[in-house]
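Much of what follows relies on a compact textual record of a protein's fold. Think of the row as the fold of the chain written in a discrete alphabet. An example makes this concrete, so a full record is given next.


***
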Amino acid sequence: MSVLTRSTARGVPGAGRSRRRTELDGLRAIAVTLVVAYHVSSGRVSGGVDVFLVLSGFFLVQVVSGHIRREGRVPVLRAVTRSLSRLLPTALLVLLATVVASVWVVPHSRWRELALHLLSSVTFTENARLVDEAVDYSASNAAASPMQQFWSLSIQVQVLVLAPVAVAAGAAVLRWAGWAHFARQAVVGSVALVTAASFAWSVVATATNQQQAYFSSLPRLWELGAGALVALLLRDVRPGPRSAAALGWSGVVALVACGAVLDGAHEFPGWQAGWPVLCAVAVLVAADHGGRLGVHRVLGAAPMRWLGARSYPLYLWHWPVLVLYLVHTQRETPSPRGAAAVVVLSLGLAAVTHRLVERPAGDRLRARPPVGALALVVVAALPLAATGGLVLTWLDREAARVATAADDPAYPGAAALGSPVVHTGGADGVEPLPSMSVIRDDWPRLPGATCRSEDELGWQPTGTEVCVLGSDDRPRRVVVVGDSHVAHWLPPLAAMAETHSWQVVGMVRGGCNLSTESEFIQEGWPEYEECATWRAHLVERIVSLEPDLVVSLGTRTGFGPGEESVPPGFLAAWAQLSDAGLRVIALRDSPRHVHDVPDCTARWGDTSAACEVPRSSVYTEPLLAEVEPSLPPRVSILDTSPYFCTDTTCPALIGNVRVYMDNAHVTATYMSTVRAVVEDDLLALADCALAPC
């Protein structure tokens, strides 16, 4: 976060001079304290990052104004280079240390994730990476990326690089048009317009998809714009001592209370983020005008200035220290002693980094010509970027090797459940597949299919693709519809389709099933309305395809005994298809585990009992018999539990094939072996739907 790199905060430029703003060091100290404290204690969002964004906009105006005042223009290359010179030495050190520590601590199954986040962080696009992943920032746990904190720095770097370019381009246009004397009005108007537009978009985007809006640049610009407008419009405002004292103390007290009152992780950056933004603005306006009772006397105290000067490295260090501690200890939240250790270690690293790296490296880079400094920065970043790229290349090759070896008889997978040796399938000394380095990318897919969006098919678009394997002239059509647990069955169905000349149509949407109601997506969640819209038209879309067979999810397993159920919405949707004369086979759900299976096997071994789940804790044995009388005509439930479990347990490794890619999803490699055991059962249950009688 760029604002954290300034060891001394300067005032808004005016009349050719600047004054020291020591109270802003204290504001940074409070902000970073809130960020760290909330992350290690509750995982909530404090509003501290929003304060840093406001201060970044405030200081950006100072820097640009300083260049204009001294040189009469904005030297773009020098301005960008100075910003990167302050930011990159510390950022690259933290990234390097995080990568080295992660190699020792993080399981191989997460190395692709680490490589992707490394590339995004070193190129300051981490926020875009998190938008793609729709990460919940409150998830400060062992599953979070240890580089996730670079999202806010990415936004600031993007603005710091583009703003000088925009100002220089705007100045050139004004000079060309002969309107140079309107420069100040143009700047104020432009910043105000961008700020207002960004705020409006932030409100809309947060209501539409809060998790994506949280990390996006455009919904966050208004927070930097608020700080910039303070610098542009309120530079000469001097509130009286009483007003300044009230403003300053109100801003600090409200900021400290913000994280306890608002759930920022699930409400920001919409209008609710105005709370911490206004707190920062209040302190900026109050400045040091509060007299002897002003908050600046506390914020400007030596301990506050010390912490504020080190807030940038502290912000960068605390997150990987916390996440790697949680990974190492296999905890979801830190213990009181662990939390204290995380804070102390992060403070120590921040202090050392500030003294040995941040200040000397930044000073030396700024002393160099802009081109030379920029070249050094790029050269320093290249090894990390190359490391990320090489790891991804290696993982892609590993994935190709896994795909090739999947047909090897040494990997019987599900077929081994009928053999005396379930875990190895009778083949000793064989490395299990998929390898841990690529297991999290082993998603089941419909290989060789052509995918089209719903609007291309003349349907109401809901952001879902429809994938088709096989031509329309094939004699049988099978529609596979539902969420990711239905998608598990695409590989074996695709293999059967090639043998029996079926056309397979995949209609898969994460979290949504063939149902008349939501099973777990709650009203108010970003996905709720989209899923409801998709479900509302699903039956008529299936009927319009005139399939010979519909395959859907039949039950939903849980995480404890008695939690398996057939949701009422499933039965209602099946009844609609049955009334339309369609044959439906509903598949019993696959097992779910309480803990992440690849992480468990990486720690304890593939055959460890700690990574298995008892069959009795997954399945409710009398359920299928109990629900049989209530099934609509032409609807059957296929019991798939023998493909994943023995009579007593559901192993993590079957027939030398790893079964789970996380706690609930089955690997494509394993599902490709299920074809050998499911085919006869499916054909027998389908009666005449899939073959002539």
Q: What stands out?
A: The CA atoms of residues 614 and 649 lie 4 Å apart.
